[in-house]
Each structure stands twice: as C-alpha cells, then as structure tokens.
Design goal:
Layout: E1 3-7, E2 11-12, E3 16-20, E4 22-26, E5 29-30, E6 34-38, E7 44-45, E8 51-52, E9 56-60, E10 66-68, E11 75-76, E12 80-84, E13 90-92, E14 101-102, E15 106-110, E16 114-116, E17 122-124, E18 130-135, E19 140-142, E20 145-157, E21 159-162, E22 165-175, E23 180-183, E24 187-190
Parallel strand pairs: 1-4, 2-5, 3-6, 5-8, 6-9, 7-10, 8-11, 9-12, 10-13, 11-14, 12-15, 13-16, 14-17, 15-18, 16-19, 17-20, 18-20, 19-21, 20-22, 21-23, 22-24
C-alpha cells in the first residue's frame, strides 16, 4: 500500500494535504495548515516530535489507528480537528515522556475512542479560552490532563473521561450545563 512520509526535519511553510493508506508524520514542523487523510486499515505508530503551528485536520477513514507521540511529545500550537469516519481510532501521547502540548482548541468527531495521553499527560497551556469539543458516541479519554495556562480557561463541550488524574496548575476547567466530565480512579491536584 502507498505511504506518504513527512518526517525527520521536514519543514512545510505552506498548506500540506496528504492522502494515502498510510501517512507518517514525525519529527516535522508544519507552519501552515496540515490535512492528513489516512485511508488504510493498518495502524500508523509514529514516534512524535512534530510541531504543528497551523490548524491541523486528521481524517481517519480506514480501520487502522493513527497513533502520534509514541516516544517524543507533539506540540499543537493551533487548533486540532480529528474526524474518525470508520473504526480507526486516534491517540496522541503514548510513551511516558511524550506529553503533548496543546495551545489551541480540540475538536474530535466520530464514534471510535480518541485518547490524549496514556502513559503521559496532556498539557493545555495556550492563552485565552481553549475549547474541547466531542461530537459522536465514542469516548474522548484523557489519562492525566494538566491545565497550566498563562491566561484563560479550558472549556468542555461534550463528554470527557479523565482516567487517572487532573492537575490544575493555573487556569480553570469549565464544564457547561449539559456537558459531562467523568472521573475514573481520580486524583485532583492544584487550585
């Protein structure tokens, strides 16, 4: 099957649209919009280390999973939208040292599970309000989210499951009326 590889110090200063059964993005810098259309049934396990400075759209149309940040952390300096139209799922932040930094909004669409941070945390550290939106029946799961914002808050639109701990260093997590925040095996630290 066809594979597109954008990695190992690849720098894009314009819009990138990559569509193939396998799209491997690791160790790169994207300074504008990135659109990934992963169409295949095999899992893409990516080591991480990518900086996303522009809006990022990851569309998973095949049965295979798209796993970012296996070893190194990803940096999302703009909005991230993940659309899962099949059974393939999305995960970022797998390894214990791969805590993703999220400075923009997150929108997750679809029915499979999406995971942010498994053996690591997911760190929200953007300025202003950051919005987490979940559309569809699949679970949006964060194991150890950290709210560490210089200003603003994180606002939840949809259901979020926190599996291990929630750390509030600075900033707030706002859960609006009608939205659901589920805690499993929880330790809350901070203010």
């Amino acid at each position: 099957s066809t594979t597109i590889y954008l990695g190992d110090n690849f720098i894009a200063n314009g819009i990138v649209h990559a569509q193939a059964p396998n799209v491997l993005v690791q160790g790169s810098t994207f300074n504008d919009t990135l659109v990934v259309n992963k169409m295949g049934g095999s899992t893409n396990l990516l080591r991480g280390g990518t900086t996303f400075n522009g809006p990022t759209f990851i569309n998973i149309a095949g049965a295979g999973a798209y796993l970012l940040g296996w070893i190194n952390p990803e940096k999302f300096n703009s909005d991230l939208t993940v659309n899962m139209s099949s059974t393939g799922y999305f995960q970022v932040g797998i390894g214990s040292t791969a805590t993703p930094e999220i400075k923009g909004n997150i929108t997750v669409i679809g029915n499979p599970t999406a995971v942010f941070g498994e053996s690591c945390s997911a760190k929200f550290n953007g300025t202003g309000t950051q919005i987490i939106t979940k559309i569809g029946t699949g679970e949006l799961r964060m194991y150890k989210p950290i709210i560490d914002k210089p200003s603003g808050q994180v606002q939840l639109n949809g259901t979020l499951t926190v599996w291990t701990s929630l750390t509030l260093n600075s900033g707030k997590l706002i859960v609006n009326s009608g939205e659901v925040l589920i805690f499993l095996i929880l330790i809350v630290t901070g203010k």
